Amino acid sequence: MEYFDSYILVILKMLRYYNEAKTVRTKQISIILGPTFVLSFQEMKGGGVRDLLCDSIQTGKGRIRRIKSDYLAYSLLESIVDHYFILLEQCGERIESVRRGVGTEHTNTDPPGNPQIDKNGPTPDRLRALKDL
């Protein structure tokens, strides 16, 4: 975040998880907040900041069109940060799914850090899933 005489510049990364490709993609987002305006720029076309609040802005839902530009900038930042939490949740689910597939279930008698592995051992598919993680 950089402060200038008549505006504030915020540059951050926006992360998105794509289920079908099982990948995380990043875009650099720049937001300029002035006394009566907000400008946002993104690194690549599509799936960016504009999509996050487009419906609210176009339909006039909520407070987004009635309050000053700082609220719009705040809403953009909040939407970007919310995607981090979505990403963390999806990664956690994927890790848990791979963990279950590898068979690292703990029993009450196992000491911490000493998981019981399936008696058949990890299969090539399970190892690939770990590698892809």
What can you tell me about this protein's structure?
With 133 residues, the chain is of the alpha+beta class. The chain has one domain (2-104, 116-132). Helices cover 41% and strands 22% of the residues. It has a 4-stranded antiparallel β-sheet, covered by helices on one side. β1 and β2 form a beta hairpin. The longest helix has 34 residues, at 69-102. The protein is elongated and about 60 Å long. The relative contact order is 0.12. The model has no long low-confidence stretch (mean pLDDT 75).
Question: In terms of topology, how is this protein built?
Answer:
Layout: E1 2-3, E2 8-18, E3 23-33, E4 38-42, H1 49-59, H2 69-102, H3 124-132
Antiparallel strand pairs: 1-2, 2-3, 3-4
Structural domain count: 1
Write down the secondary-structure element order.
EEEEHHH
Give the beta-strand count.
4
Inertia-based shape: elongated
The separation of the N and C termini measures 32 Å
Beta-strand content estimate: 15-25%
Helix content: 40-55%
Order the strands across the largest sheet as they lie in space: 1-2-3-4
Mean pLDDT: 75
Structural class: alpha+beta
H/I helix tally: 3
**Poorly predicted runs:** none
How can the largest sheet be summarized? 4 strands, antiparallel
Radius of gyration: 22 Å
